């Protein structure tokens, strides 16, 4: 099984390419439960909206706080840290967040799966 992707995120510095592949034997070795933490971090609508906003170029909690959908700055920090802990966000520089390049295509793939 192989999946791959190539895209240029809005506001990104350039294109992102990604490919993952495993043989049937490799797939048989996967413990599905290991995905629970990573997938659980995406299991909240506000977190997905935050990820979308950050993917689209909003990078600070102050900017995110201007959107009422995200709640208070404390709630935003809670969600951002949960997403960062699961590897869906990283600190680009102090106070600025981004979706790591290696997570862009997997994130978009999961969103497509969840919406189609």
From TrEMBL:
Protein's name in the database: ArsR family transcriptional regulator
């Amino acid at each position: 099984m192989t999946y791959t992707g190539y895209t240029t995120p809005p506001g990104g510095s350039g294109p992102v390419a990604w490919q993952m592949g495993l043989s049937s034997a490799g797939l048989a070795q996967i413990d599905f439960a290991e995905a629970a933490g990573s997938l659980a971090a995406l299991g909240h609508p506000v977190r997905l909206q935050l990820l979308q906003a950050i993917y689209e170029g909003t990078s600070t909690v102050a900017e995110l706080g201007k959107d009422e959908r995200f709640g208070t700055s404390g709630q935003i920090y809670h969600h951002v840290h949960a997403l960062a802990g699961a590897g869906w966000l990283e600190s680009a520089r102090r106070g600025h967040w981004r979706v790591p390049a290696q997570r862009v295509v997997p994130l978009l793939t999961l969103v497509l799966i969840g919406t189609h």
